[in-house]
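hey m, so remember when u said the tokens were messed up on ur end? i reran from scratch. heres the input so u can diff it against urs
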Amino acid sequence: LYNLRLHVSVKNQNEIQIDFLLVSEKGVIVVEVKGGKIGIEQGLFYYEVSRDRTYMERSPFDQARDYMYALINNRIISSSQLFIDTVCAFPHTRMEHTNANPRADMGYKLWSKIQQDDANQSFADFCIEILEADKYKNGWSRPDLQADDVEIAIQSLLYNFADRR
């Protein structure tokens, strides 16, 4: 699902706009995409156009996490029934790490131009790896969804969004 809008409050927003929401037998993943040149300076993410930097109010990783919790807190997704996670995609920027501190680095959840340019890597496989790794890390023990359950989850999600494409 893409470009999903939901009228719920998050931080200083009255509406959330999720770039992509992927649903599979492994779970649900919120994907926040930032095109163009993206960088980090002193812990702040920025867009760069013609050497002019525009700093983001919050990191794309925080934005994706906020949207994930908005889905959970507004009971659009039941986190006890569906595993939900987040990733970010910067397809035009070569970036491996988001922080020099390994404990704060979200680079493992980042799909960048490095992976985009590697014909041996797929975004779908990347998302599944993140879901499986974070399920393990969080002690998720429920079995994967069956095909019929995935379809039910998608239909349930579509019902909650104004744009039902």
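this time it looks ok to me. The two ends are 8 Å apart (CA to CA). if urs says something different then somethings off w ur setup not the seq
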